[in-house]
Every structure is written in C-alpha cells, then in structure tokens.
Amino acid sequence: MIKDLRIIFLIVIAIAICLAVSESAFGQRVQPKYKVGDRVEFSMNGACLGDQFAVPAKGTIKQINTSSQSYVMQVDGRQGDVSRPIYTQECGFRALAPPPPDPKPADPRNNDDGQVKPTPGNNDPQNGPAKYKVGDRVEVSLNGACLGEQFAVPVKGTILQVNLGSVMNYVVQVDPRPGEVPRIVSRPIYTQDCGFRPLGDAAPDIKTDRLRVDKDNTVLADRELLDCDNLKHGG
C-alpha cells in the first residue's frame, strides 16, 4: 500500500514538473521588448538569428497580440503579414534603425546649380516683398532673362500696379516709341532682382489725338460727314 502511494506521489510530482516547464516555455506572459512601428530583423522559422538554419527577414511590427503572445509583422517587399511568438524575441529578433525619410521630390524651380529660384505666388524668403511701388520708373526685361544677358529684351516703363497675394506681379506701362501706343505688360515679382532696374528719369509725355465725341460722349468720325450732294461721283 505504501509502495503504491509512493508511485502515485512520484507521478503527481512528475506531472507538476511537466506543467511547470510547459507553463514557463509556452504559457508564461513575456513582456514585449518592441512596440508597434518598430523596424526589426527576425527569424521566420524560430531559429535564432545567426544560426545556420535561420531564415532572417526584415519588417515593421504592425500589431502586438497580448492574448496569443505574438508579434505581427509586415515583411518588407512581401504581401501579407507574419506572426512570431514574443518569447522568441531574445534571439530571434534584432532592432533595426528606422528607415530614412523619403527624399523631397525634385523641385522644378531648381536651377542647374541646385539653388532654388522662387516662383510667382510663393511667400518664401527668397521671393521677398516687392522692391518697387506704383509710379516707379524702371527698366525691365520682357522675356525673363536678366538685364545685361545676351538674350534679354530690355524696355523702359512705369509701374502701374503691384499685385501681391496669389498673383505676385508687377504691371508695367512700357514707354511707346514714336507713332506707337503704350503697351501694358506684367512681370513676376520674383524677377525683380535681376530683371528690373530703377530709373531716375521721368515718364515721357505721351501725347494722343483727342477723339471727336458728341454731347453723349459717343465717339464720332475723325471728320465731318459729307452729305450726298457734296460727294463726287466719277461714274
């Protein structure tokens, strides 16, 4: 009887030891070392990283399941997620540096030397406020080339408007040549550094013929109308 009791006792002890080992290996709550968003290298098959048969992969932790005690990862360059037990984190996981930020898209304003040329409507320091005001006499390049360059088209004129906000341009009345009427052109404010030059002269006196108008201010012909009796017929 005593022998039977000893056998039963040994069996109970063995079962308790097995349960303890099982609990420590598989059921024990392991505190995660990593968090959602961490970049990691991990072993896909459970072997320790660096072992002969390890299958390493890199990815980003998307989820930590406390109930199933597992990490869920999005593997780089692969569709779908994979999960690995948290208890494998000691030798089956390795922290990776976060990926570098995405490079900024190429700025279409960049010149060949890499310097940024401001565009109309921006408010960056390179654009700056308008240097000229309404009424200023300026020499301006009509085609955007800097004054003094080979292909610049310089003209003289008077600034009529300074438009800020989303427009960001100068409206300039170009001095007419003899027999021409004045032209109105607009140039972006950002071209003011090399495409504009202040002038010290006064605006020219632009003379125009007065139009003949009636009492209602309707424009008439440039001479009196002839009646039929005064018309000469050659037929």
Describe the structure.
There is one protein chain. By secondary structure, the protein is of the alpha+beta class. It has helices at residues 2-27, 89-92, 192-195, and strands at residues 39-43, 56-65, 70-75, 81-85, 93-95, 137-141, 154-163, 169-174, 183-188, 196-198. The strands form 2 sheets. The chain has a 5-stranded antiparallel beta sheet with strand order 4-3-2-1-5. Strand 2 and strand 3 form a beta hairpin. The protein is rod-shaped and about 155 Å long.
Beta percentage is 25-35%
The low-pLDDT segments are 21-26, 113-127
Instruction: Report the radius of gyration as a whole number of Å.
Output: 43 Å
Q: What is the element string, with H for helices and E for strands?
A: HEEEEHEEEEEHE
Q: In percent, how helical is the residue content?
A: 10-25%
Write down how many β-strands occur, each being a DSSP E stretch of 2 or more residues.
10
Strand order of the largest sheet: 4-3-2-1-5
The averaged pLDDT comes out at: 77
Count of runs of 4 or more consecutive helical residues: 3
Which structural class do the helices and strands define?
A: alpha+beta
Distance between the termini: 157 Å
